[in-house]
Structures are given as C-alpha cells and as structure tokens.
Amino acid sequence: MLNKRVWGAVASLVVVAAVVLYLVLGKGAPRTGGESSDGSATGARSGSSRTRDQATSRSSIRGRVTDAKGPLANATVCAATRIDVTACATTDAQGTYAIEELSAGAYRVSAVAPQHRPGRFADGGDRTRAWIYLAAGQVRDKVDLVLRAGVLVRGKVNDVNGGPIAGAHVRVKADDSWATLGVVIPTWSPPVTSDRDGGFQVWVAPGPVEVSASADGYADGGVEGTAPTEVVILLMPEGSLAGRVVDAQGQPVADALVEANYVDTLRKTHSDVNGAFTIGRLPAARYEVSARAPNGYGQHAGLVEVSLGRQTSDVTIQLLAAARVSGTVMLGDTPCAEPRVELRDVRTEVEHVMISDGNGAVHVDGLLPGDYVLHPRCHGALSKEEPLPHLTVTDKDQSGLVWKLQRGGTIHGRVTTEAGTAVVDAEVKAVHGGWSESATSGDDGSYRLEGIEPGIITVTATALDGGSAEGSLVLKDDAALDLEVNTAARINGTVVDARGRPVKGLEVRADPKEAKRAEGLSLSSVKTDATFEIPVRPGSYHVYAAVDWSHPIEPGVDVTVAAGQAVTIQLKVPAQDGVIKGSVVDSTGAPISDAVVTATTASGFWDTSFAIGWNEHPTLTAADGSFAITDLGPGAYTVTAARPGAPPVSQRDVAPGATIELSIHKGASVVGTVTYSDKRSPREIGIDLRDEAKTFYRHEDFLGTKGAFHIDDLPAGVLKLTATDPERGFVATSLVLKPGETRIGVALVLAEMVEVKGRAVDDKQQPLAGVFIVVTPELSLVNMMRAYDNFLHLTAPDGTFAIKAPVGPGTLSASSFGLLENRERCQAEVKLVVDGPKEVGDIAVRCTKF
After folding, report:
1. What φ, ψ does residue 257 adopt, rounded to 5°?
2. Which long-range contacts (CB under 8 A, 24 or more apart) does 356-360 make?
3. Bridge-based pairing state of the strands 792-794 and 708-714
4. pLDDT tens sequence across 450-480
C-alpha cells in the first residue's frame, strides 16, 4: 500500500525511503518532481478522462496580478486540482485574468511571470487558506496575486543523449511548511516552456531550488541547485501503464482515483466510465499501483514494471469492500479553515490523509475495515499527539464525525535588520512540545505563529541572506516578540582539482561545528560551475565538497566567520573526470540496446552490501550495446545494467578507466501461496527476496489474493525469501533458482506472532516515553524499521510497551530521535529468543546528544 510511515519515528522514514529507492528495479530512473502541495503529481498525464460534472453551468476564477509597481501583464495564472493543472490564463494590460469552464471542486491558483518569483493565492492573505472551493456555476472573483522580484534560473532541457527538447514544461519547487501544518510538502509553480533549443528561464527566490521538466514522450526529470544558477535537465524516454479498475464482480468502476507510486514519484489519474486509465511520463521502475473509490480499495498484486519507452498494459485493479468516512474539524467552536486529518491503520501502519472539502469538512474514500488512530490538525490548534481518537471502520460509511481541537497560543511580531528595515521572507520558527511551527515574514517583516503550547518558547528567524536572530519568552495565550537579525556572514569560494582546474557540479556543504537546537544541519550550495556561495550564521564551520549528501570529499576546510564577514576559500578535490566504459549483452552474447546503466558508490550509513548512492550517472546503451559513464571521481563503483523483463545485473569494485561487460539473462519466476497452519489466508502479505551476494533485493505486496503471490524477473542462484502478514505472521525460506525457471507450488506457512512486553528506561532507571520499539527476526532480510512491517510500537508515558513479535531468535531495538528540541538520540539493542509470550523487563536505553 501507499504512504507507509510510522508516526514518531522520523529517522526511520529516511531509512525506509532510501532503502526502497535503491533496492528495487529501476535504479537508473532519474529523480522526479514527485508530489505537489495538494497531493497531485507534477507533470502527470492521464490517457483517460475523469468523469466530469455534466451540469451545463460551469465555474470560473477571476482576479488580478500585480507587483510592487502595479498591474502585471503577460503573467501566466493556473488553477490546479488535486490531480494536475486544469487550466491557465494570461493577464492583460491591466493585470486581470479569467480562468473559465471549470468544474465544481477544489483548486489552488498560482502565477508566474518574467523577472518575478512564482506566487500562490492565499485567501485574505492567510497562507493557511490556499484552497478555493467552487460550487457548480460559481464565479469566484478577486482571486488576486502579488508577485515579488526574483533571481534568474536559466537552463536547458535535453534528452539523455544530449539533444535539445523543445516545448518542455519547466517548473520550480518551494516548500511551504506553514500552509501544511508543519508537514513539508512541495509547491510547484506554473510551467514555463522551453524554446526550440531546449532553453528556458524562470525567476525564483534566492537560495535552494529544485527544477523539474516534463515533455511529451519523456519521463519527468529534475535537478537541484542554488539560485541564481544555470542548470541542465536530462530526460529519459517515458514509460506508461494502462489498465482497468473493477469491483468484486469484475464490473468497471468509474472515477476511481488511481495512483502509481515509486518512492518519490507519485502519479495520479481517474478511471473513465469504462474503468480504464492510463498514466504516462513514468521513469522506468517497478510501481505500486492502487485505486480507491468511495466504497472500495484495491491494489495490483505485486509491483508493476514500467519499462523505458514502453507501455505496460492490462493492469487490473480489483477493489475490496471499503468505506467512506467524513466529518468536521472544529477549532474551538469554529470550523477549521484548512484541516488536516491523518489516519493510521493500527494493523498495517498504512497512513491515509483525509481530503478537505472546505469549512472544516473532510473525507477519505476507500478505507479498508480495521482499527485506525486519527490525528486531526488545524493551523492555530495545539499539535499534541495524546490522546488520539480511535476509529473502527467496517465496510459501512461513517459520516457526521466531529473532532474538536484546542486553540493554542500565538506569537507575533516583526523581523527587522539592525537598522530597522523590514526583513522579507525570513523563516521564523518556534519549537515546542516536540513540534515546530514556522511562518514566513511578510512585506513589512511581520510574522505570526499560532498553535503554540504555553511555556518558555525560543523563536528563531533566518533571513534569505543568512542573517539570523533568536529570542525567548514565556507564553501564556498571546505574546509579541520582535526579532532583529544580525548581519549575515558568507562563505565563498571555488572548487579545483590538484592542478588548479575548476571542478564543476559538486555540492559544497558547511556543517556548523557547534550545533544547537534545530540548527546544525548542513547548509549547502549547488552550482553547475566551480564556484559556491553559502550564507551562514556567524560561527565556525567545516566546509567540504560532496558528490551528494552521503558521499563527502575530504579533507575540507575549517573556517570561522563573523557577522558581516565574507570569507573566501578554495577546496581542492580529486578530478571528477573518470570514465567507465563497457557493453551490455544477453545470454547469447548479442548486444542489448535498451539497457539503463548506472554507477553508484556505497554509503557507510547504509548496509555497504547494497551500494546505495544518490548520484547514479544514468546512461543508455547504444545500438551496439556499448555505454560510457563519465564525470566520475576516484574510487570503486558498482555498475548496474537493467532492462525490461529481466533482473538487473551488477559488477562491483569497478574503477574509472575500466572497461567491463555485463550480461543480462532471462529472469526466473516464483509462484506460491502463504497460509496459516489452519489453512486460513491472510488478507495481505509482503514478500521480500534477496540473493546471497546481496546485490539483489525486491519487496512486493499482495492484497486480497488469498495468500497467492507471483513474482517475476528474479536472478538465478540462491534466493532468501520471507513472507509477512502485517498483523500476525512471519516465515522465511530459501530457494535455488535456475536461469529462466518458473518455480510453482511454493507453499509457505506463517508462524503466528506472540506478545512481547517490557519497559524502556534511561540510565537512571526512569521511564522513557515515545521510544520506538521493533523486533527484527534473525532471518529477516532487511531491518524491520521499515514502516510496512508491524513489529513496532512506541512506549507509553510510563515507558511500557506490548508488541507482537515473530517466533524465533531476533533483536529487540529501542530508539528515539529528538530532532527538534534537545537533539538527542536514544538507542538500545537486546538479543532474544521469542518462544512464546515474553516479558523482557527493563530495557536500558542510552541517550547521547548530537
């Protein structure tokens, strides 16, 4: 299922995303735009039409776009639904626009114009009120936007072989944590179009920026940088998938929401009147494909492979009986303007987010029967997690539910320079009770933080140029706090090799040497040339170049900068001009011309056997099967080739300058069933497979198949396989597969889990609440901190826990990460043998600062 995460275990989510991203087929896929602020997919394209409101009365949005000088002509204004950009208009000489012929529904409106950074409409200037809810035939006017001056990001969109792509749609991303209740979800600008040479220009706020491009016939692709900058975006040929959504009787389901999910690539569409759907512009990868309707939820059995430049057809999703749940979120006695309600399936840890319908109303379709924990949130309300309401869902709809939230305290004030000038777009943040609330200062420097727990609160402000301020107060209900930022410091420099030649394209990071509170995460600058410029708070830093976040290039340089000081340094790195050449052939020695080849270096943060890295250098084989991977630094690389219908093949410890041959063979298949000893079938199972050399890993889920599974494109040799019922069972086995073999009749019997109880305590024997508890079986193929395994629990206020664990030897792990306030990491591991219900007593958890 989709959106799998564990509340309270932030660090484990990073592990989950990275492990899945690099251990499934499709490793060469470029990172894409992902999900927009409203849950929509950037660049998503549907080959089928959603069932629309057939009423003859259509709706429209009208307004005006201005800047500091007045009306802004020739700005592009777009209205976007939760799926994609629906319609756009261009402003006239008076800055007015009208987006006509809209269906009833919810829209976000944004604008982009030359010389100006993108802007998004906020009702009444309140950034938490970003949605416009249109009724049939409604004309919503005064949807006005004010755009600010921006800095230039210029670039080119090319195909993977270097040819220009004309007519590509280019967007830029920003993060808006205030408007999303502390959940950082990206907001994408309206698109600008590349010219015949693939060139484009877009203006943004200075600082970190992500740029995404989409074009007909290509999968979306993107790059990151630090504006102002110049970038090149390479696009791969697209893949697509098509299929049907049907009910339990095999009848078509119209207007079902269909999602294709591969880590940071999420595409959505709706089925048409025949239940048919098509999703395009997909990178080559294996996708979870699911569908939901008001009274049904289903997902395709196992992963769906999407191949480079091809369409995967006949994807059938059969819905299981499910329910629609709706209600209202109240802030005191007033409906919440923009509520967010998260539901977590207690059994599977799958999370769902309810859709806002306006005026506090929310709903979610397709909830499978089960027990759910709800976390209703509203801007201005306290964000306490306890007590959280529970909801038992059957296959019957539930409506009229009401969740009342308590209003929190408010901190407001202005952010100014030492000279009293307003600081615009400063990030203002308050940390309280394990949560953070943030806001951005307005044109007059004003800010407003709401939903703060009473107590001693520290507020920080960080300006775009790196200037900073900090203040504290005792909050009861409402308090004012003005913040005066100091003059920013700056670290500038160049990156060169041993011979003094500029080295382009690396990331430069500055790590504070004495981190405090929420500070301490690296600041970075990404340029396509060999220069860097990092605005920082005054202090001491370790500055170094890096290939990506997990591959620093040492030694770096230690610098100390004072307020207003600019320090210029030079970083020397090994030349990044290495080349690995080779060819890809099939089992007969014939060249393969459609393989994606990547080169990665292992990261010490992860299991080194998996050769995980963010910088993969993807390339395509030529007609004769040859390839060349360029711009490599010194070191050992794992080179992997993947093509449709076969398992990927890798060669480790390849140094630049080498020439290699990779041979891809037809994959094997495994077909089987998973049951309990009494022949009961689980509602859903997760299958994990890994080879002995740990160069191959696959995870696939099967929902509603009565325990049946079928997995293709597996490598020959010894494969370890585990099956997990998220609620009650675990089993492990090994298989020896021949090339191209189809192994049928694999019958696995789940061993039911038993309860393990205990208590987490610190070194003074005091109970620890909110500690993440997980039991990993000795036979498990991956760390069970993955969210889609339910061997987990958070300790209660008295430190106690009671979890379900698989029978057999394993490891009980306890961990917590105080990322926001005390920057404390607590960890413990205990070996144990689970042979029945077990009481493990006190688990001593050691906590250290970081």
Report:
1. -80, 120
2. 356/106, 356/131, 357/106, 357/133, 357/326, 358/106, 358/131, 358/133, 359/133, 359/335, 360/328, 360/329, 360/330, 360/334, 360/335, 360/336
3. unpaired
4. 989 898 999 999 888 878 899 999 999 999 9
